[in-house]
Specification:
about 80 residues, mainly alpha, about 65% helix, about 0% strand
Length: about 80
Amino acid sequence: MAKIDRKDGVPGLAAELARLEEIVRRLEADDVELDAALLLFEEGVARLRAAREGLAAAEVKVQAVLEEAGGDIRLTDLDG
């Protein structure tokens, strides 16, 4: 189970990523049974979705902070 590191009881991004890494390691193991693998895969997809949503929310917050800075800071796309 991922460590809960936020006040609202929801795992933070670091906890989500750590659990995703653990899931990948377990799925890559030779001894994982099909039923367990399916459950791990479902959990991984859910955690990946949550991590993406967390990153999107962080991007919105960063954008707001930059806008409050008076527009003196130029934004660049990190994906490009």
